[in-house]
Specification:
The structure is a single chain. Among the domains are: 53 residues; 65 residues, no CATH class. The radius of gyration is 35 Å and the shape is flat. 62% of the residues lie in helices and 0% in strands. It starts with 7 loop residues before the first helix and ends in a 33-residue tail after the last helix. It has six helices and no strands. Keywords: Coiled coil.
């Protein structure tokens, strides 16, 4: 739809009309987007409400979710959040102990040992395990001795560059 504009007043009126049209279309599209979003999210809401009522859902959700993404600051903010290794140990350690070591023990012994193992698993996290492994590999690795040639002068203190006595920039062409 092209209209013929003859003077500045008609141009200003056309600009104002197009701005109003733009705002109306943006409002209409925003409402349509909200309606479409609600229609698409309805099945998700129904399924998530059904699944959330299943026993053990929170436990599995806590194990799978990545609420701590590295860093002690995040751990200080939310003490209940822990990394995947700690959560897996908190779930798996009691199961392993029940099936192996505590197979024939009484319920009191099982509960005390399982409580202690869960608390111990809570103290273990990826960072502590990684630091322990790195310390172990440093201990096992053979130490490399640096051989220094007789004709190469030693490094000056605080310098990473070998000083051969040639001033820098003296061989520029």
């Amino acid at each position: 739809m092209s209209t013929k504009i003859n003077n500045i007043d008609e141009l200003r009126a056309e600009i104002a009309r197009l701005k109003r049209l733009k705002e109306e279309q943006e409002l209409y599209l925003g409402v349509q987007y909200t309606l479409l979003n609600n229609k698409l999210s309805a099945p998700y809401r129904v399924i998530s409400s059904i699944i959330s009522r299943m026993p053990g859902y929170e436990l599995v959700k806590g194990l799978v979710s990545s609420s701590s993404q590295g860093g002690s600051d995040n751990h200080k903010k939310n003490e209940n959040s822990s990394d995947w290794l700690t959560r897996t140990l908190q779930l798996g350690l009691p199961l392993v102990l029940n099936r192996t070591l505590l197979k024939k023990s009484g319920w009191l012994n099982k509960s005390l040992v399982l409580f202690a193992s869960e608390a111990a698993a809570g103290q273990i996290n990826q960072n502590s395990l990684a630091s322990a492994i790195s310390k172990l590999t440093e201990f096992v690795k053979p130490k490399k001795k640096k051989k220094q040639h007789k004709d190469v002068p030693p490094l000056e203190e605080g310098s990473d560059v070998i000083n051969f006595g040639i001033p820098p920039g003296s061989e520029t062409y």
